[in-house]
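Journal club side-thread
Mid-discussion, someone asked how the predicted structure for our own chain would compare to the paper's figures. Pasting it here so we can look after the session.
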Amino acid sequence: GEEEAFACSKTRASVCKACTAGSFLSAATKKCAVCLACVAGQQQTGACSTTANRACQTCSTGNFLDTKTTKCSACSPCTAGQEQTTACSKTTARVCKTCTAGSFLDAKTKKCKACASCVAGQQETVACSSTTDRKCADCDAGLKFLDAKTKRCKACVRCSAGQEETVACTKTTARVCKTCTAGSFLSAATKKCAVC
């Protein structure tokens, strides 16, 4: 790694000078040249020396230059229930964020989205999670109602003989029955208690 500082002449021998740190002897020019620097997204594959230029290699697609190791590393994929917030590039690792409570990762958009809500008269059949939207099903009107405590559809009671329905069974309310009082009966025509 030396360049000729002074050429050989009739009065003196040639004088050579060593290439300084950070430079190498160029085969093309026979002069010392500054070693190239690897740019962002490139890893060093060969060190700079007085006899060789630095060799660099660009990180391939799906890899980034890890600043800690100064080597190209594979970008990790986002896991289930995570959305990508920063894309993988030659200079940046992929960054992912877990969907927060009450949201899930939409398979179409690959973004976190608020979970659906069950409306009155519906019970939850699939719970909301970071990977799944909430699913709901209607209670069967006239047969079942949504129990406010358990949030589950429950069968409506049937009024017994001698009882009239005072509140109808709907998706949101339980059937309420009242026993006919002494001196009254359940009318088959009206389904209401009537005085004897």
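Post-session note: The longest strand covers residues 2-6.
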